[in-house]
Amino acid sequence: MKGKIFFGLILILLIFVSAFLFLKIKQIPPKIEKPTPTSSIPTSSTFKDSSSITSANNQFNLDLYKNLIQKEKSNIFFSPYSIFSAMAMVYEGALGKTADEIKAVFHFPEANILKTNFAKLYGELNQKKDFELKTANALWLQKDYPFLSSYLTLLEKYYGGKARNLDFVNETEKSRQMINQYIEEETNKKIKDLIPKGSISPMTRLVLTNAIYFKGVWFWQFDEKMTNNQKFFIRPDFSVEIPMMNMRPEKAEFNYYEDETVQVLEMPYKGEKIVMIVILPRQMLSGRDLLSFESSLTEEKLKTYQTKMEKTKLDAIALPKFKLETKYFLNENLIDLGMPTAFSGRADFSKITGKKDFSISTVIHQAFVEVDEKGTEAAAATAVIMVKSAMGKPPKIFRADHPFLFYILDKETGTILFFGRMVDPRG
């Protein structure tokens, strides 16, 4: 009898200890291993079609491109998908005006449609064959910071975003190097030093990253022996000598469209599931005319070009052999497009931690592309750096950088002794 009572007491004690440990464990932020997003790609057949995400991504692409051409006078190259992916993960943590602005800039559909359709698209991209194509999302968390498990679980389930704890506070530079090393590995060493020194500080609490890498072989390759230096007209009155690849396809037919203003050529890669589309204005345009042409592009116009293409036998194709490397700090661009709140002390990312304690510090995007006779290699990465802000309150700054009034007051008597207006400090 005493033995039964003793074992009964032991059983009750074990139940209480288990319950206590369960409650404690729920409060501890998960320490998740190094990101391996491709191992958790969502493939559920219940996910909806990804076309709404594709449309949103493509519209954002044109919006950002039109913003960039106002600021960049030379070459432009970026991955809208990479930026779109990183900001979708940011959006999942936003509420209120912060969320509304991000949604409008990126044309996101409703939250449930966004995450399920993104999951399908993410899975589809990572399962392509006949060429190398991979994309990886990751989260980098300040260790011991109380992130909501609901946010981390959502990003892993729908965005393939695994997380790893770092110590931004005490090991700032080491943390930066670890993220950069991961990005370099995911992009086959094409994107190096994505996050420059000084971009991460002891105030950093979360960094969200996307990396994308593509390498495809032309379905119809150029003959290297036919590549030679030819003129490329940067302006109608100014040309440079560059290596021009040439093809005289005898059997090949290409999807092609032309009208009085433009020629549009589709260059397929092996597998014919990914293509490069080249839009060539018929006339050599000056800077202002080119800007006008670019500004007139719409998603609908691009779709029209694609639907009107027909299999066509071309007598000759000439395409420059080139390599581009670009880097953009996108804060100003995204603010221009309509999402200033996310970068301010008024930002509401309370779905990440349960508090209004985060704002975006920096959005960095870097891209690489090389086009030669065999095919194309391209890579890009995006990092969104989020810092601890002043609990949602806007920073208090007094900057007297415009005309003001002033006076000198005797506080004891309340007498104004001097009064003035400052318009020009030079006197």
Draw up the topology in text:
Layout: H1 2-26, H2 51-68, H3 80-91, H4 96-106, H5 111-125, E1 132-142, H6 149-159, E2 162-166, H7 172-186, E3 204-217, E4 228-235, E5 238-247, E6 254-258, E7 262-268, E8 275-281, H8 287-295, H9 299-308, E9 310-312, E10 317-320, E11 322-329, H10 331-337, H11 350-353, E12 358-371, E13 375-388, E14 404-410, E15 415-422
Parallel strand pairs: 1-2
Antiparallel strand pairs: 1-3, 3-13, 4-5, 5-10, 6-7, 6-9, 7-8, 11-12, 12-13, 14-15
Helix pairs in contact: 2-5, 2-10, 3-4
What does this entry look like structurally?
32% of the residues lie in helices and 29% in strands. It has 427 residues and is α+β, with helices and mostly antiparallel strands. The protein folds into 2 domains: 37-217 and 323-388, Antithrombin, subunit I, domain 2 (Antithrombin, Chain I, domain 2, 2-Layer Sandwich), CATH 3.30.497.10; 228-320, Alpha-1-antitrypsin, domain 1, CATH 2.30.39.10. The strands form 4 sheets. A 6-stranded mixed sheet has the order 2-1-3-13-12-11, with helices on both faces. Strands 8-7-6-9 form a 4-stranded antiparallel sheet, covered by helices on one side. Strands 4-5-10 form a 3-stranded antiparallel sheet, with no helix packed on it. A hairpin with a 3-residue loop joins strand 6 and strand 7 (262-268). Helix 2 (51-68) crosses helix 10 (331-337).
- Principal-axis shape: elongated
Number of helices: 11
Across the major sheet, the strand order is 2-1-3-13-12-11
**CATH third-level topology of the largest domain:** Antithrombin, Chain I, domain 2
CATH architectural label of the largest domain: 2-Layer Sandwich
Specify the CATH class of the largest domain: Alpha Beta
> Over the alpha carbons, how many angstroms does the gyration radius reach?
28 Å
Strand content range: 25-35%
Q: What is the CATH H-level superfamily of the largest domain?
A: Antithrombin, subunit I, domain 2
Distance between the termini: 101 Å
